[in-house]
Amino acid sequence: MTNLTARTVGFKPRERNVFFHILTACNLSCRHCYINPEQHGTATVQLETIEKWLRLFFDPARETNLIFLGGEPTLHPDLAAGIKTARQLGYQTVTVDSNGFLFHNLLDNISPGDAVISFSLDGPTAEINDPIRGKGVFAACTANIRNAVAMGFNVSLIYTVSRINIEHLHLMPALLKELGVRRFFIQVIGIRGKSAGYTKDNLQLTPEEWLAVIPAVAQKAAALGIHVIFPKVFLAEGEEFACAGRVAENYFIFPNGRVYQCPLCEDFPVHAFTIEDNRLVKNTGLTEDRFFTLDIAEGCVMNKLLQPGNIGYDEQGKPLYRISCCLLKQELKST
Ligand code: SF4
Ligand code: SF4
């Protein structure tokens, strides 16, 4: 009999996660793209600098995980070389987050043991996915998923849930099983980049909408043997709040040298660190880490600052629910 084990994945004290945006250019123009060229620049980090920054963020005393991001990271001609350098340095895991196009024959230039390939799809069919991510994207992405799986790569998939595609999420587990995808990340739509600008057709979900759909679909995927990961988003009564900026080590690196600790801060010049002459320099003034220290009844401070109207209150002014750190995940897998 299959047992499904659900748990909240707490922040690990001796873990470091490095999210490295090696460029901001992309061949797509997704509706909810979080890249903000005004804040993150339009540069491409050259290989020599990639290697220096990989050394800068690698900590042999910690389990250090690396995620290559963009833009579309496979547009970078030296991504394969960067992956090899990371492996040689001793990064515990290396993941490439791709929109599915896999430029520069990436899979022919690395080995399946070098990196996990994480694909993004926002619908179970071209009819749902392509209006969000672009014409022809579903066909290109699923063809490359099949190819990667056939070559022996460990493949995961990210589905960003919004009002537009939530009703189709339930069709994903069967598709993933058929494609051979082993891990499924259900992501909540962000409030960054382009999606921060939507007001009329608000893409974001209410707690009721999220809770009515996501746990059930996660169960369905896990029952098929897929490891499912999804953000906590709302804390239940009695659950402890923790801000990753205080208790975890996450670095979100951008080509212009900005380094954030919290992804919700990425639209603002409040980054805690800057890379200067290949050294990590702590910034002074009003930086994101000042916000992390504020204890508020609503939970995540940045969520409260960016979307004050999003939280309901009772007659005594107490929040109806607390918002968890956006980096806190739950996982569900069969054992
Ligand atoms: S693939 Fe990623 S970087 Fe490219 S437009 Fe879509 S969300 Fe933005
Ligand atoms: S999302 Fe909120 S709780 Fe998490 S690091 Fe940012 S400010 Fe802290």
How many strands, what sense, and barrel or not for the largest sheet? 13 strands, mixed
End-to-end C-alpha gap? 9 Å
- Report the average pLDDT across residues: 92
Q: What's the CATH topology label? A: TIM Barrel
Which percent range describes the beta-strand content? 15-25%
With helices defined by DSSP (H or I, 4 residues minimum), what is the helix count? Answer: 11
Report what the structure shows.
This protein is of the alpha/beta class. It has a single domain (4-241, 323-334), classed as TIM Barrel. The protein is 27% helix and 22% strand. It has 11 helices and 15 strands. It has a 13-stranded mixed sheet. A two-stranded antiparallel sheet has the order 9-14. Helix 8 (207-223) links the parallel strand 7 and strand 8. The relative contact order is 0.16. The mean pLDDT is 92. One iron/sulfur cluster binds at residues 243-245, 262, 264, 291-292, 300-303, 325-327.
